[in-house]
Amino acid sequence: MTGAAQGIGFASAKLLREHGARVVIADIDLDAAQHAAAQLGSGLDAVGMQCDVTDEHSVAAVADFAATALGRLDVWVNNAGITRDASLKKMTVEDFDAVVTVHLRGTWLGLRAASAIMREAKSGSIINMSSLSGKSGNPGQTNYSAAKAGVVGMTKAGAKEVAHHGVRVNAIQPGLIRTPMTAAMSAEALAERETTIPMRRAGEPSEIAGVVLFLASDLSSYMTGAVLEVGGGRLM
Ligand code: NAP
Known about the structure:
Blueprint: H1 7-18, E1 23-27, H2 30-40, E2 46-50, H3 56-68, E3 75-78, H4 93-121, E4 124-129, H5 133-136, H6 142-162, E5 167-174, H7 187-195, H8 205-216, E6 227-230
Parallel strand pairs: 1-2, 3-4, 4-5, 5-6
NADP nicotinamide-adenine-dinucleotide phosphate binds next to α1 and α4.
């Protein structure tokens, strides 16, 4: 699970752990990854690792660790993400590249590393974290919306490549979820966004984690290339 020291990734790792999985918390911040892992278990039940998803060797090291030290890699979640919101007038090339690189290269590196191991095992589930921003396009997020729409294309292409090896690749498009990523929004901005959601509230990380668990498990055994919207009815 990448970017799992906090937010949606941590909630997902916690739920998978509660359902018996051994989890690797792979995050750019080693201390945060180890602290998060310690909350979920000890020894090989929950391991914190430093991982920069933009670095191919870093991503490969996490996949190799799971396959060798843990003995198997059943589920891989490409969750790490960043935002660098700005209008087109103000967004820099660096803002654009940073967001596209974390989400697109990061997800692709995870997809490549995990599928290589899973196709040998003839089974596995890869879950990519997209966003409803990639469906609708959000002003101020030309970088993020492009990247998250790209994750959908990558999910479908990857799913078609590895389906006959028993490996499934699906995506989740969360709506507005209360995490450190959205904590920067003012209370007014959050409340205004909530009025646009049919369920009239932001979601909790645990409500994305439940969908991660579903896609990770055999309950979704006939699903691949699917994009699940989890946004309280927003943008349906
Ligand atoms: P979050 O709380 O900011 O957690 C993301 C984690 O990823 C952080 O621990 C972050 O570390 C880490 N990370 C950043 N860059 C990384 C890198 N290069 N390599 C490894 N880890 C890295 O975000 P979240 O809200 O839980 O979001 C999780 C995913 O859901 C993201 O892909 C996000 O785009 C997506 N999403 C979120 C929402 C929402 O409303 N929250 C909605 C739709 C989609 P630092 O904190 O040190 O940067």
